[in-house]
Amino acid sequence: MLDDKTLAAQFPTLSSMTYLNTAAEGIPPLLVGQALQEYFHDHQLGMAGRDAHFAKHLLLRQRAANLLHVDTDDVAICSCTSESMNLVRMALRLKEGDEVIINDLEFPSSVTPWLPPNSPATIKLWKARDGALRLDDLLPLLSPRTRFIAFSWVSFYNGYRQHLKPIVDAVRKHSPALIAVDVTQGLGRVPIEDAPVDLFVSSTHKWLVSTHGGGIVAIPKASRDRWSVPAGGWFNITNAFDADRFQHALVKPGAAGFSVGMPNFPAIYAIAAGAGYISDIGVESIDKFARPLVQQAHAELRKLPLEVITPDDPSTLSGILAFRHPAAEKINQHLVKNNVHLMCQAGRMRISIHGYNRPKDIQTLITHLREALNHV
After folding, report:
1. How is residue 28 annotated by DSSP?
2. May I ask the CATH architecture of the domain 32-280?
3. In degrees rounded to 5, what are phi and psi of residue 19?
4. What is the pLDDT of residues 18-33, one digit of tens each?
5. In degrees rounded to 5, what are phi and psi of residue 196?
6. Are 195 and 17 in contact (CB under 8 A)?
7. What are the residue boundaries of the structural domains of the chain, listed by start?
8. Statement: the pTM of the whole predicted model exceeds 0.90
9. CATH architecture of 4-21+282-373
10. Please, where are the H alpha helices in the chain?
11. What is the C-alpha to C-alpha distance for residues 217 and 278, in angstroms, rounded to an integer?
């Protein structure tokens, strides 16, 4: 990924396009496709392939645990972050008077589970200022009745990266709330800081250069007993095949309770391969390689007649930069015509830079942005 020879060998499609849309879809290395073939080979063995399936499941949990600085037993695999957050809602068993804090830089999967009309909790909105979530704006929202706070480590919207520990420390002083952090837009791209949050969730088809069909859930041991998911299934049940199974269901505590059914083994093979690829390179190495490209792109975007909505603070940069323009759709049409791929949605354009990007990708982007801006 970080040298041109490996880039050509593992990411051949990148030779024919300028790809700056990893925050939507990561490009998997060829070894991820090989892992899917490995799954198929093992599955053709029938039940005899189950040992290999569960070995790969354990391997993925080990690799995810290493990336998140938790123990393997603290990690489970769901189907996606939306499933994870809906199980979180079930586990909280919210009542009238409980309070939940969400924010306006958030992806829908961490917001919408709390908004149905039958949700009994009071919803408080942590509003961003100048594209950033400020701790000073969170503190007045906290109270002894705050049960839950959900936010993303890196915002999908503009790439703003939170400093986790100050938030956790402040919450612990003012409320008993459980803190859930979606790390989808940073895991595999930016080294994560140690912070005693209560739950991590992550998708797998973006910066982890893997496939769809996986959702990583991690609950550190200190918070394990605070989570019990009242969901039926079998993989999450301790007595699923015991004699008393028709009288009651005993859900596994902590992260294990979030894996309710048969694991999605094809995705698990692929995600284990992608996570292993990222881990072998090292997230620190990826960040060291890609951060100058992000800084270069940020500086160049500031020179153009665009509204850059990613905050200037270098300590909060991630792999994502975003900007707005009234003619965003026409600009994007020009970029696509020149085989430059980024995200364009409702006037907002977003670029994302991973370890497989190169300085020429930034140069190409800026060149075609200038051309498009000269014609709109």
Report:
1. P
2. 3-Layer(aba) Sandwich (3.40)
3. -105, 115
4. 999 999 999 999 999 9
5. -80, 60
6. no
7. 4-21+282-373, 32-280
8. yes
9. Alpha-Beta Complex (3.90)
10. 4-10, 30-43, 50-68, 81-92, 135-138, 164-174, 265-281, 283-302, 328-337, 359-373
11. 18
